[in-house]
């Protein structure tokens, strides 16, 4: 067991866990932040996507001991961000979700995409969203929502 | 399937505490629905009129379906699991429309297990057969209309007028002299009124919500991480369990070495539990990660003696041999020898292979149980609350009414949460039994899911067609080989007729194409691999076979795929014909000017009462089909929520593409499943799905039919029909390993 001080959604949180514990399970079980989802445990589905140091990261394979002082943003905090707010709104307006289980990860990946590429092409979308599995298959509306969000964002991202 | 799993001995459910003023619309209605069917000639209740069970009327909780709160919020109970299909919005729309409720103040909740929430047709509480709207549309309309009538009765009394002089809008009753009263002000008194037995339902022109594209109620909470799924449940003192399952289905634990596993900090117990077949080892810890770590450190010796070691290659050999012999007859019409009289040059012989498929819903399977000796509580995203509740009760030595069963939001399911043996709930109950008083959440890892069985069964089809001089099929002999999904379950006696599991032959045996000499038979070999319905069930493979062969026949007859299908369809296949006509119009703008290297693929299929036609624009990129566009036309009767129908079809095509993925197959070697996770069993990602899907709904005032499963069957045949045009090859063996 070891103690870690984490910057999550702008707040300082402290946890004492086994160093091998993936960030995903620290979020879900120690911090009770269950918006980030467990899908596969091998970074193959993207349901667990969060931002670590601004980069879309599969939290199911990152041990807590590897986080260091990089800030973490999760689905619970992305709405505090201008891009995140627009993306969440576009998701609701486009009525993207079905079962909704993968959508936290989809939204986190979409936010990372739009921060780096405010006017994404279809190819940009396929590359950035390519590892986020949606078993319901909501991909056409995900694509539509990303384009709708992009249209509302200033050209330089934030 | 009316009497299925009937259990009428349960008393009314002790509902969770609502606010003190709760308004009952349900009691009398349910008495009338279940016990006193409307006498002939009454206006309501034609559609889902079940056989009345012979018993005395029971008192139902007054707030079973509608609760009008003092703050004006109207809480509507949804008698189905929500797992993506949108019923958590659509059924409340139906009730709220007849109630004239203010939609912005409607809250939907998933109902727990209770008799009142059983499917009016199947008489178990379940989601399946695309029946949520089809079976409960009338029920929810009546609930809304009767509730409204009771509110109006109170208002009319107050204003000393008659109900017919009052009108309602947005949760307010308006009187003839300009009086008005909010529903929330009338609810307490209305709850004491008798429930009317007969009310007028709205005409189709009077709907305010039904038929209007309506956004999902659960969408905001699914976009900000606040919605709780079953796996997100957290209870005081809760422990987390994982189970080590045998490497071969039905294996038993011979010995366990758990020294290292027990050293993992947080691990509380390691013990053997019975499984639906065989046994496994449960690891209980304070959290998931230590439980998972401990499982990886367990050394288990398994007893596999006497177990059949299923092997995909061997199974194909066996299935192909079986397919060359006639099976049990599903349908026979015309002259069975007609085929043999047709010249070999005019015959087509086609053999098809379909692999095992795992459902793999995004939310791994899970169930939480707390056992308190004389009662238990269960939390599960279940498609089969009635059965799961009974099975948990059986494991715990309780009666079903001693088990409170909460329906949790589920992250997909596609049939995987509707399992007759409740194997996941049984595991959770067996663990909770040992940890009496402590809530335990059982988590199936993705590996458990991919390797855990309950797959869409492997199927082999052998089809011989004799083509007539007009290019139409004159004779058709079809043999289907595959495990029965209902064998050994309570459904067997309803589904299996003459030795044929109709869920394996549906889509062929009941085809809407005119085939004068038609013979379909089936073999159902027993294999040591548990199998299950997978979204759209038999239609997953039968539609593929029929629609690729019909396309082949059209090409051979040098006819347009639309024209050929229209010519061959029975005139009574109205929904398919209307969907084809609409597709013809809707795809005209693009399908005749495709770029070079692109091809059109067409298919149509009717299932669960819904007719669907699909056209795709496909090219081949990186040796895989690239679907640039799909246009779908749907005849599902009245579309209750067109936005939801559109969504089901836009996305459901993507689900249907599972079986075209290069690694879209579960295979076995020496009894062991060869895939472990999403790296070996690779499902459709955004790049595999159609870039655009436009959905067109046939305008209809007919009773609504399901839209959960009908999107799935049409896409794969449409795509390979396009690919055949591009490559000249026939694609009859799935998964689509190479193009």
Report on the structure:
Chain A has helices spanning 23-30, 82-93, 103-116, 122-128, 139-152; strands spanning 2-8, 11-17, 49-52, 55-58, 72-73. Chain A has 158 residues and is an alpha+beta fold. Chain A folds into two domains: 2-73, Beta-grasp domain (Ubiquitin-like (UB roll)); 78-152, [2Fe-2S]-binding domain (DNA polymerase, domain 1). Chain A has a three-stranded antiparallel sheet with strand order 4-3-5, covered by helices on one side. A two-stranded antiparallel ribbon of chain A has the order 1-2. In chain A, helix 2 crosses helix 3 (103-116) and helix 2 (82-93) packs across helix 5. Chain A is globular, with a radius of gyration of 15 Å. The relative contact order of chain A is 0.16. With 739 residues, chain B is an alpha+beta fold. Helix content of chain B is 28%, strand content 22%. Chain B contains 18 helices and 28 strands. In chain B, helix 17 (642-656) crosses helix 18. The longest helix of chain B has 27 residues, at 132-158. Chain B is globular and about 85 Å long. The chains are: A alpha+beta (158), B alpha+beta (739). At the A-B interface, helix 1, helix 2, helix 3, helix 4 and helix 5 of A face helix 5, helix 7 and helix 17 of B.
Name the descriptors:
heterodimer, A: 158 residues, alpha+beta, Ubiquitin-like (UB roll), DNA polymerase, domain 1, 5 helices, 5 strands, 15% strand, B: alpha+beta, Aldehyde Oxidoreductase, domain 4, seven-stranded mixed beta sheet, 18 helices
Question: How would you sum up this structure in a few lines?
Answer:
Chain A is of the alpha+beta class.
Biggest interface between chains: A-B, 61 and 63 residues
Task: Please tell me the overall pLDDT of chain B.
Answer: 91
Total of domains of chain B: 3
Rounded Rg of chain B: 27 Å
- How many E-type strands of chain A? 5
Number of domains of chain A: 2
